[in-house]
Automatic annotation (TrEMBL):
Keyword line: Cell outer membrane, Membrane, Receptor, Signal, TonB box, Transmembrane, Transmembrane beta strand, Transport
Subcellular location(s) of the protein: Cell outer membrane
Location (main, coarse): membrane
Assigned protein family: Belongs to the TonB-dependent receptor family.
Bilayer topology term: Multi-pass membrane protein
Record-given protein name: TonB-dependent receptor
Region feature Disordered, mapped onto this chain: 31-95
Length: 729
C-alpha cells in the first residue's frame, strides 16, 4: 500500500519549482560549486602535465528557496584543461553511505577488482582459488561467500547471479578494468529502498569513466611472468564516453596459479536533443585460470608440502561474460527526473576443485561445476520533489523486473585421468524477480524524516533431470517444480543537523536474500532470508575532511552458512551481527590524500550465543597518497600506499585464523605524455594466509580415512613488483 500511496502523491501533489538541474552539464572542476563535492572535499592540485582528477560528483538537494541553478559557461579550450560531467546522484541518507573517488583509488596499486574492493570500509575481499574465480567477501560480520550478502553493481549492470551452482549470489567482478573505476558508491546495511536482492550487509556500486581525453596505452611487466596491456580511448570531454581493452597473463607466484584474461568495456553518453539523453554500456570478458587448492597445516609442518604448494593439478576453470545496457533519461518536467534502463547478460563458468582429496571416494573428490546463465532485465527510476502540507518532499520511485535462465551441472571426476564417474546435479532453472519501491524524505527544520518500502515477487521454475533417479527402472527420471513468494520490506530513517556540515542519523531497513532454486519443492512459498538492520551514527562533511561513524546491528531470522570447501550447508536459525564502523577521508594539504577506515564486528547464533565461523571481527584500511610537482624536471612525482589489517577470524571447532597485515606501495613519475609507475604488492614480503579453513580431508590415498578435522590454508601472494609504462596521446 505504501508503494501505491507514494506513487499517487507523486502525480497528484503540486510539484516544487525546479531547484536542481539534472541535465548533464560540462564544466571544469574549478567551476564546480562546493556543494557538488560531497564525500570528496577539494580536488587535488592540478598536475603541470595532467589536469586534476575530478572529485566524485554528487548533487545534494538544495533548500526550496534557492533559485534554479544555471548551466555554467564552458571555459575556453586549453591544452591543460579537463572537463567533468555533473550528474544527479543519490544523496547520502544514512551514516554509513560513502563515495570513494578517483583520487583515493589512485593512491595505491589497483591491479584488479579485488584491489578496488579493498578500499570499501570494513570489506575483506579474498582471492583464494585463482585469479579468475569470484572473490570471497566479508562485511559487517557477514561471511558473504562469493556475494550472497553484498549486492554488487557495475555501471548499472547487476553482478550477483541468482541460484548459482557454486555459491548463492555469485558475484564475479574480474571483468572490471580497474583503470575505468571512476568512483565507488557504498551503502552499508540495508536501509535504502533501492537496495535489492543480496543487499544484506550492503551495496557497492562501481561508476565507470576514463581518466583523460585522448588515447592512453599502459603496458606492465612484472615478476612471475606478469604481462598486461590496457588501451583506453576517450574521444571527448565526457569521461563517461570511452572504450577500453585489457589483455593480461601471468604464471602466478607458485604452482597452479597461472591465468590469462581479456576484457573489453565501452560506454557512450549521447545527447539525443530535446532533453533526451541515452547511455549504452557494453562489454565482453573471457579468462582461463588455474587454482592451487589448499595446503594442510600438518603437511607444511612435516615438510611434505611447502607454503606455496598446490594440491591437485586439474583445478581451475574458465569464465566468460557478455553484457549490454541501454538507458534513456527522459526530458525533465520541473524537478522530475525519469530514467529507463534495459540490460542483458550472458555468463558461463566451468570450475574444477578438490578441497578434500580422497576423503569421500578412493577415486578422488574432484568436483566439476558448470553454470550457464542468461539475464534480461528492465528498470525504471523516477525522482522528483513534491509539496506536502507546505513542505518539500523528495520522492524516489522504482520499478523493475529480471528474468534469469540457468543451466547447471555438477559432476565428480577421477583424479588419475580426469574422467567423470558420478553426476550429482543436472538442472535447468528459470527465476523471475519483479520489484517496486518508494522512498520519501520530509525535512522539518533541523530534522528530516525518511520513509520507504520495497516489495519483491519471486517466481521459480526448476527442471531437475536427476531427481528421483532409480536404477531399477528406465523411466521415472527427472522432475519439474515451481514456487512463488513475496518479500515485503520497510525502510525508515531520521536525521538531525547539528550544524551545516555535521548530522546525526538513525536508520532501519529490511533486507533479503533470495533462495537457492533447487532447494524448493513444488508449490512452496519461496522462502526469502529476512534481515532486519538498525544503525545509529553521525557524519560530517567538510571541504577538507569527511568523517562518519556508526553503531550497527543486523538480525537474520533463518540463517545458514555454507562451507564451500566441503559443500555442506549448516542451518543455524536466528543470528545476530553487531559492530562499530568509522571512516575518514581527508585532504589536509595540497597534493595529500588519505582515506582511513576501521570496522569491529561480532556474529553469533542467538539461541546458543556461539560465534559464527569465518566472519572478520576486525578490519582496518588506510590509503595514503602524496603528489608533488618537480618544477626542475617539469614532472610530477606521486607516492602512495595501501595498508590492510585483518584480525583473527573465528574458524570451526573453536580455532582462529592468523592476523594479516599487508602493505602495498607505488611510486610514479609523470612528464608530459609519458609516465612510469612501480607497484609493489606485499611490500614487507609477509607470509600470509589468504584463506583458512578447518575440516577433515585425506590427500594421501594410501593412508586410512579419517574424519578428524585439520587446518588448511591457501597462500597469499609474496612480495610482487611490476613496472608500468603509460603513454598519453
Amino acid at each position: 500500500m505504501l508503494l501505491f500511496a507514494l506513487a499517487t502523491l507523486s502525480t497528484c501533489l503540486q510539484a516544487v519549482p525546479s531547484t536542481v538541474p539534472y541535465a548533464v552539464t560540462a564544466v571544469t572542476s574549478s567551476q564546480l560549486p562546493s556543494e557538488l563535492h560531497q564525500d570528496a572535499g577539494p580536488a587535488p592540485e592540478p598536475r603541470p602535465t595532467e589536469p586534476p582528477t575530478p572529485a566524485p560528483e554528487a548533487v545534494s538537494e538544495p533548500a526550496p528557496s534557492e533559485p534554479p541553478a544555471q548551466e555554467a559557461p564552458l571555459p575556453e579550450e586549453g591544452p591543460k584543461q579537463r572537463a567533468t560531467v555533473v550528474r544527479g546522484t543519490r544523496p547520502a541518507r544514512s551514516a554509513s553511505e560513502v563515495t570513494i573517488g578517483r583520487d583515493i583509488l589512485d593512491t595505491a596499486p589497483r591491479r584488479n577488482a579485488v584491489d578496488v574492493l579493498r578500499v570499501v570500509p570494513g570489506l575483506v575481499a579474498s582471492q583464494h582459488s585463482g585469479e579468475g574465480k569470484a572473490q570471497q567477501l566479508f562485511l559487517r560480520g557477514f561471511d558473504a561467500l562469493h556475494g550472497q550478502d553484498v549486492e554488487l553493481n557495475v555501471g548499472g549492470l547487476p553482478v550477483n547471479e541468482v541460484s548459482h551452482i557454486h555459491a548463492l549470489g555469485y558475484a564475479d567482478t574480474n571483468f572490471v578494468i580497474p583503470e575505468l573505476v571512476q568512483s565507488l558508491e557504498v551503502t552499508e546495511g540495508s536501509y535504502r529502498a533501492f537496495q535489492g536482492d543480496f543487499a544484506v550487509a550492503g551495496t557497492v556500486r562501481m561508476e565507470l569513466g576514463a581518466r583523460e581525453q585522448g588515447v592512453e596505452f599502459a603496458g606492465t611487466l612484472g615478476q612471475f611472468g606478469q604481462r598486461r596491456l590496457v588501451v583506453t580511448v576517450r574521444p571527448g570531454e565526457d569521461p563517461g564516453t570511452f572504450a577500453a581493452a585489457e589483455i593480461g597473463e601471468s604464471n602466478g607466484f607458485g604452482p597452479q596459479r597461472g591465468h590469462g584474461r581479456a576484457s573489453l568495456l565501452a560506454q557512450a553518453n549521447v545527447d539525443l536533443g530535446h532533453g533526451l539523453r541515452a547511455r549504452v554500456l557494453a562489454g565482453s570478458y573471457v579468462t582461463r585460470f588455474d587454482s592451487p587448492g589448499v595446503v594442510r597445516e600438518d603437511d607444511l609442518e612435516a615438510g611434505r608440502r611447502t607454503f606455496y604448494s598446490g594440491s591437485f593439478p586439474r583445478q581451475g576453470g574458465t569464465v566468460s561474460r557478455h553484457q549490454l545496457l541501454l538507458g534513456v533519461e527522459l526530458p525533465r518536467e520541473g524537478t522530475a527526473r525519469t530514467r529507463l534502463e534495459a540490460f542483458g547478460i550472458l555468463s558461463d563458468l566451468r570450475l574444477r576443485n578438490n578441497f578434500t582429496g580422497y576423503r569421500v571416494d578412493d577415486r578422488g573428490d574432484g568436483l566439476e561445476q558448470t553454470n550457464g546463465g542468461s539475464t534480461l532485465g528492465l528498470r525504471a527510476e523516477h525522482r522528483r520533489q513534491v509539496s506536502l502540507l507546505g513542505q518539500p518532499v523528495s520522492l524516489e520511485l522504482g520499478l523493475g523486473g529480471r528474468r534469469d535462465g540457468i543451466q547447471q551441472t555438477q559432476r565428480r571426476y577421477r583424479e588419475t585421468d580426469g574422467t567423470f564417474f558420478a553426476d550429482e546435479v543436472d538442472a535447468d532453472l528459470t527465476q523471475t524477480d519483479v520489484w517496486g519501491y518508494a522512498e520519501a524524505r520530509l525535512p522539518l527544520g533541523r530534522w528530516a524524516f525518511r520513509l520507504g518500502g520495497r516489495a519483491d515477487a519471486l517466481g521459480v521454475e526448476v527442471f531437475d533431470a536427476l531427481a528421483f533417479r532409480d536404477p531399477r527402472f528406465y523411466d521415472g527420471q527427472g522432475y519439474s517444480r515451481s514456487a512463488f513468494g513475496v518479500h515485503w520490506g520497510a525502510k525508515a530513517g531520521v536525521e538531525y543537523s547539528l550544524t551545516d556540515t555535521w548530522a546525526l542519523f538513525a536508520s532501519y531497513g529490511d533486507g533479503f536474500r533470495s533462495p537457492q532454486a533447487r532447494s524448493l519443492s513444488e508449490g512452496e512459498r519461496a522462502p526469502f532470508v529476512d534481515v532486519h538492520g538498525v544503525e545509529l551514527g553521525t557524519r560530517s562533511e567538510g571541504e577538507r575532511l569527511s568523517f562518519q561513524a556508526s553503531l550497527f546491528g543486523s538480525q537474520v531470522a533463518d540463517d545458514f552458512f555454507f562451507d564451500h570447501t566441503v559443500g555442506t550447508t549448516v542451518f543455524t536459525g536466528e543470528t545476530l551481527r553487531t559492530g562499530l564502523s568509522a571512516a575518514l577521508q581527508t585532504r589536509p594539504l595540497p597534493g595529500l590524500t588519505a582515506a582511513l577506515s576501521a570496522t569491529v564486528a561480532n556474529a553469533t547464533v542467538t539461541k546458543t550465543d556461539a560465534r559464527l565461523p569465518y566472519f572478520a571481527p576486525l578490519v582496518a584500511r588506510a590509503d595514503l597518497g602524496w603528489e608533488r610537482p618537480l618544477s626542475g624536471l617539469d614532472a610530477v612525482l606521486s607516492l602512495g600506499t595501501g595498508l590492510t589489517l585483518i584480525g583473527p577470524r573465528p574458524l570451526p571447532y573453536d580455532e582462529f585464523s592468523h592476523t594479516v597485515f599487508l602493505a602495498d606501495a607505488q611510486v610514479a613519475l609523470r612528464r608530459g605524455a609519458f609516465a612510469l609507475r612501480l607497484d609493489v604488492m606485499n611490500l614487507l614480503n609477509t607470509r600470509w594466509r589468504d584463506g583458512e579453513f578447518v575440516y577433515s580431508s585425506r590427500f594421501d590415498p594410501s593412508t586410512p580415512p579419517s574424519l578428524v578435522p585439520a587446518r588448511h590454508f591457501t597462500a597469499g601472494s609474496p612480495r610482487t613488483a611490476a613496472l608500468t609504462l603509460e603513454v598519453h596521446l
